[in-house]
Every structure is written in structure tokens, then in C-alpha cells.
Amino acid sequence: MNKKSIKIVTIIAIVMCYIACKEKTETNTELLRTDKLTIYATLQFAQSKLCDEMIPVFEKIHDCQVDIIAHTDEVALLANITAEKSTPKADIAIGVKGIQVHQVVERDIFQQYEPANLQNITNRNLLLDRRHLLTPFAYSYYAFVYDKDVVIEPPKTIGELQSAIWRRKIIMPDPNVSTTGHSLLLWSQYLFGEKGFDLFWRNNRESFIIADNLEDALDALRIGEAPILLANLTSIWYFDEIEEPDRYGVFTPDEGSFKEIEYAAIIKNATNIYLARRFIDFIISQEVQSQIPQTYWMLPIVAGIVAPTKFAEIKIPTPDITNTIFDRRDYFASRWMDGWNRTVKQRTQ
After folding, report:
1. Residue from 222, 223, 228, 229 nearest 173 by CA
2. What are the residue boundaries of the structural domains of the chain, listed by start?
3. Pick from 261, 240, 253: which is nearest to 317 by CA?
4. What superfamily would CATH give domain 141-257+314-348?
5. Each residue of 263-287: pLDDT tens digit?
6. pTM strictly above 0.90
7. What 3-state DSSP class applies to 255?
8. Which of 246, 255, 260, 299 has the fewest CB neighbours in a 10 Å radius?
9. 276 vs 21, 55, 115, 185, 292, CA distance in Å?
10. What is the enclosing helix (H) or strand (E) of 250?
11. Is the separation of the CB atoms in 98 and 128 below 8 Å?
12. Beta-bridge partner residues of 231
């Protein structure tokens, strides 16, 4: 046998080996399948119209049962998955936020999966984790919702929040338990630096009402305890549709804003890998993504979704400082939260 023949045979052997390994992997994936998919989700997702509409469709397509176990928020969600790391009781996590991406990597609680329809995500900046531990399915921008009956001219910058006219006028959920609250810490780090961060919060602590969680923060706005709420840009759709139409407005500061991104992920050592992967593919499908604006009050991650006029009119904040925020790993160090607790929380309790 000449060298050329040997080379051809070698290549064929490599290809056949690859095919056999691929088939074995897919067979093993099929074996890791039960008739039930268990999902740990945030309360926001579990109680959403999106959940109500997409889960029955997935169950019908795959002839399975989906169990949703709700957690109060994304912080509790991540804590529970971490606690169960050695013996996970769920297959999927839904509602993980972009702000948690560094924790996800450090805790090693999710497994890699590159969705079969990844090409649907045309904005690759939404893929904060390039190893595909997390798959984005919806996003918005951090912003402030305000009661137009009380606030005639909202502040234009974050710096303006230090004015005495906003004393006890701004509601924020506790950043220790809410990524929405944490967003304002990151915002102030970006704008004022380490020394300015402490000064900003010392000057500003009288402006804020600290709610125990996001739901309590929403209640505080509803009952008029304060007229401004730290939330996200597209939550105005929720307020117009579910609360009182035309009562609320929304603004983002002139300094810009950054994205609030929501993710789904497969839990490491999950027992139902096959259905878990199919679910990740499903949540970024055109079918599900077309429902995001009307049922989840956020923006879809798939381009070209035809949305109602009021959704199309949303004004994207500029500048978008998302990459700048998330590229600064030191912004997510615990010392910033510790400093905020000393400066604000302990003095307002």
C-alpha cells in the first residue's frame, strides 16, 4: 500500500471514528431523558403570561411534563442551585441576570450548551458568557419609572439625584437581594469611580427608600410612598397594560444605561439533558421570541420580530455602557456592596 493510500485510509478512519463518537454522544444524551423536565425559575418568569403560554406548547411538542419551581428572585434562584450543586433537583434555570454572570462562572453550577439555533441571536453582545453556560432570551435597559402626576420634570442625570428635592422620592430594591438594586451600584461605580462612589452614596442616602425586594418596591410606587422607581426601560409597557394607562413615565439618565439581560441555563449534572437542551433551543425560537414583548415586557433577543406599535416606539438609551460595565470584573467585587451597606443601609435602618 502506497503512502497516498495510507493517508486516505487514515482520513476515512478519523471520519468514521468522529461519526461513531458523535452517535455515541447523542445516544448518551437520549438516555439522559425522563418524561419530566424540572425548571427553577424566578417568580417574575413563573407568574408571567410568557410562562403560561410557552410551557404547554413545549409539553405538547415533546410529550412531557414540565414542573416550574418558583424562587422569589434571581438571587434566591442562584443560591438554591449553588446549595444543591452536588445533587441538583432541577434541569433548567430561568431568570438568571447578566449582573450574575461572574458568580455563575465562579460557582461552576451550569453546563455548557451551544443552542442548535444560536444564529437566531444576531446581537452577540448579549452573550456575556462566551462559553455558552448562559443563553440570553430577553433584555431591557435599566431605567427609572415615575408617577407623572407627582413628578412633572424628572431628573436628567444620576448626579441630579443628589438634589434635596428628591429626598425620600426614589425607591430601589435592596441590592443585596436584587440585581435591579445592584444595577445602581454599578452605575455609580462607572460614573464616579471608587472615591466618588462613597461620596455619591453619602450625599444621596436620604434620597432613597430601600425596599426589601422588587415586589415591595413596586407596591411602594403603587401606593404613592415615593414617585420614582428604579426598574427597567420596558417595564413601562407593564405599567400601561396592567397598572394604570398613561399614569407612569420612564426615563434613562443622560449618562447612558446598560442592558438588563435575562438568561436560561442547563444546571450542571442535570438528569434530563435531552429535554433541557431542547428547551434552551425552544426559548430562543421565533415562536417564543415573538411573544416576549407582550407577555414578558422585555425586548426579544431575535431580530426582526414584528411587535405592536407601542413596543416599536421604545427609545434605546445612548450611550450604551453595557460592555464597559461587564468588562470591569473589579466592579463586581464584594467590597462595593460592603461599602454601600456601611454608607446607606445600616444608616437608614
Report:
1. 229
2. 32-139+260-310, 141-257+314-348
3. 253
4. Periplasmic binding protein-like II (3.40.190.10)
5. 999 999 999 999 999 999 999 999 9
6. no
7. coil
8. 246
9. 21, 13, 11, 34, 20
10. strand 248-251
11. yes
12. 143
